[in-house]
Here is the input.
Amino acid sequence: MIYADNAATTKMSEKAINTMVAMMNETYGNPSSLYEVGQKAKEVLEDARKQIAEKINADPKEIYFTSGGSEADNQAILSAAKLGEKDGKKHIVSSVFEHHAVLHTLERLKKEGFEITLVEVHDDGLVRPEEVEAALRDDTCLVTIMYANNEIGTIQPIKEIGEICRKRNILFHTDAVQAIGHVPIDVEKENIDMLSASAHKFHGPKGVGFLYVKRGIRLTNLIEGGAQERGKRAGTENVPGIAAMAVALEDACRNIEKNAKNVGEKRDKLIKALGEIPHSALNGDSTKRLYGNVSFCFEGIEGESLLLLLDDKGIQASSGSACTSGSLDPSHVMLAIGRPHEVAHGSLRLSIGDDITDKDVDYIVDSVKEVVEYLRGISPVWGDLKAGNREYIL
Ligand SMILES: *Cc1c(COP(=O)(O)O)cnc(C)c1O
Here is the structure.
């Protein structure tokens, strides 16, 4: 089996699993308890906070643990909105191809009277900083742009966007769930005020993540209760998960350079070989993308059928976001980069990990070629294209 859906989730690392099990066995106390096993858990928690903060050049006091990326996105955006509202600023700038954790939170704010401007994404899968700047208004309270897109893997000009926001004194949040542990991140240098992360995208456990919030920015609670996380996120902390997240992030960050080179080579090989399939196209810029992301559109086929047949061959891939698969609507990301509906349906996302071998790459290429050819052979749309009754789009 070849697992090529690391953008949906990753397999936990051995170290992260061992850390988690050790915590569950030994450090099971409640970090709020004053006796020894509680204080030990508290120590583990604070060590993890420190370790994680270091990875993005933040202060440990700026890290808030959450249940994952979606919660972090929600809390960051709702907090910025609350702060803006107090000053009479109810305008937010984001982009059309954000994760639904961002887009749906913005939808909710729209119903509460906020105005939302979504900047376009160009054919190369990139947002333009000058277009973000042009969208800013006197009443803009937040800009939220994802660090790397989860479907097409393109890495956004975060530092430049952050600089624009910093100059205008506007809060800047980035959903870095796909990027952290895969791209070096420095919140200081990149002018980031808030950043969301999730452990299960970098070989940590599911259901745990964090929100970085620059000191001085007041968070709004999503969950009320105890005084955990400096009163900003109630609930007994997920100590085993948090400890495992810290270990996983440490490993991921240490290996960024190595993976960028080794996995990046495999990515480029896949891009080159799959690009040889007639009437196919790579989605997003070929270099400004995550080292593990390969995203293609193939004309005349259905992504869903492609996935099922690849699954039969032992290849686990995706046609886009885990959140939209199972729905018949084409992905909002494919539409955002200008793929028409007909083509947007025929997309394939391979998100490879550091366990991929050259043999796997060859097998994937052969399998995709074979399956695309087979599906085109039985597709009425492809028949029309070949007969000249329809124009090729790709
Ligand atoms: C996976 C993902 C999320 C959601 O994170 P969860 O921890 O699963 O809630 C948010 N944003 C992006 C870009 C993601 O890839």
User: Anything to note?
Assistant: Residues 109 and 392 are 41 Å apart (CA to CA). The mean pLDDT is 96. Residues 68-70, 73, 99, 101, 146, 150, 175, 177-178, 198, 200-201, 209 surround pyridoxal-5'-phosphate (CB under 6 Å).
